[in-house]
Amino acid sequence: MKKQLLLLAAAITAVSLTACSSNSNNSSNSGAGASSSVPASPASTASASSAPGTAAPNAGIDDGKETMDITLMVPQYAEIGPSSDSELVKKLDEKLNVKLDIQWIPGASYNDKISVLAASNSLPDVYRVATQDYMQWRDKGVFMDVKPSLASYPNLTQYLPEEAWKELNGKDRYYGLPYYSIPHLFSMAIRQDWLDKLHLQMPATVDEFYNVAKAFVTDDPDGDGKNDTTGFSIIVDSDGKFENAEFLEGAFGLGNEWALKDGKLVAMQAQTEELKAFIGFLNKAYSEGVLDKNFLVMKPADARNKLWNGQVGIQRLNPNEALRLDEPNIQKNFPNAKLSQLLPAGPTGIRATQTDGMGQTKVVINAKIDPKKQQRILKLLDYMLSDEGYDLIKDGVEGVDYKKKDDGTYEKLETKDAGNLFSINFFRRADSAIQLHKYNDQNYVKQVEQWLDNNDKYDWPNYGLGLAAETEVYKKVNFATLNTKWMSTMVNIITGQAPIDDIDKAASDWLKNGGQQLTDEVNQIYQERQ
Ligand SMILES: [Ca+2]
């Protein structure tokens, strides 16, 4: 980090020197002996304003009169997005006096496409970029620093929180706009009909959670007379991290990657006391058959299938799908199935919801294009977050994507492309209701919003979010391998093949083999940004 700062300082000095020398050259070239008493000539003003670093805001103010061609690239997945000649894009074209060339690229090959375009120096004017590519090119002059321009585009800062802007950026330069991700998207869900059948209350603590999960194993909640249900599952992923277990990790006081203790960041891999409580809980659950015996080989889709098949009654879900997709699928076999939200508190009263970054994916503007075009793109993005523009990119065009009915409610119309896909896949407000539309059933909308609102109450912050990728040690040590080695000890303890005190050795090994250096560097960056 120190090295980077020195380089940055050197770069700034170089720019100021260039600016100074070009000014002094101009004054000597002007030939007037007493240059200090002479007002700046038009020539020297023009020359100074084109010097790098001093120019951008005034260099060329876009008055909006010129029609501009703008290339825009965005990934698409199952649904097809509006093409360049769609009614929706025509409205954007007219509003901004632009001709948008929209390239929807299949999501699976999107990052490869970006790499190919970067290699041939033909990146689009504005596009979405994943964390890894963003970090790789952030400091290499590929993306426009939009921070100096933000004052002119108030919707951008009004509808996107400062924390999302700062992610992966620090506080001085914003090389990308946040593609906003809902921080508390996922909920734990429980089969309410199983609770009712066994006359059990919604568990309020992790101890009650344990007892309910155990009853789901031993007390035949589906009433078929067979011992064929399990309590809950967790996932161990290929990066050596737990999934589906966030509510328990948080409840036992573990950090969401990074905890904050006395102003210092502590890696969760080194929180030995909290780990002993959490892993000890899982060990007991495993030995009593409450934790799914197959958890080690399960993928998230397997865990969800078990919920749909009625084999498990507790699972992590996306509220946007819980009532629309998960509950109906369980009901195919169990018509009375009903899902409720589950939020048990830990020993010290902590409730935690899985909490993710809000701006880990970015929308970037090409640094190499005409500054006037950059401004027009900012104007376009700003419009997309205005009331009128956001209504357009979120719900589509009235009469094309939906219609207003006589009773004042809205109805979705059949279209070949999805009029909501710019907001889903490209750019949107900090809007937790991003997947809820005016043409949805409004009772359904209220229920989903209730789940999302409940999630928001139990934030589980990652105090070192995104900082690891900025460290030097991150380039030298393979942390997926190091974390996986650490995780193998955790798994051995959970499954009863190693004693709980092995946590101390796993933590010290993790620190010794790169974790301590990571912790030191991450703390240094964290302090610099406070
Ligand atoms: Ca049964």
From TrEMBL:
Low complexity bias spans: 23-60
SUPFAM superfamilies reported for this sequence: Periplasmic binding protein-like II
Position of the signal peptide: 1-21
UniProt KW keywords: Signal
Residue numbers spanned by region Disordered: 23-62
This protein's record includes keyword Lipid biosynthesis: no
Highest taxon of source: Bacteria
PANTHER family noted in UniProt: ARABINOSE-BINDING PROTEIN-RELATED, POLYGALACTURONAN_RHAMNOGALACTURONAN-BINDING PROTEIN YTCQ
Name the UniProt record assigns to this protein: Extracellular solute-binding protein
Organism: Cohnella zeiphila
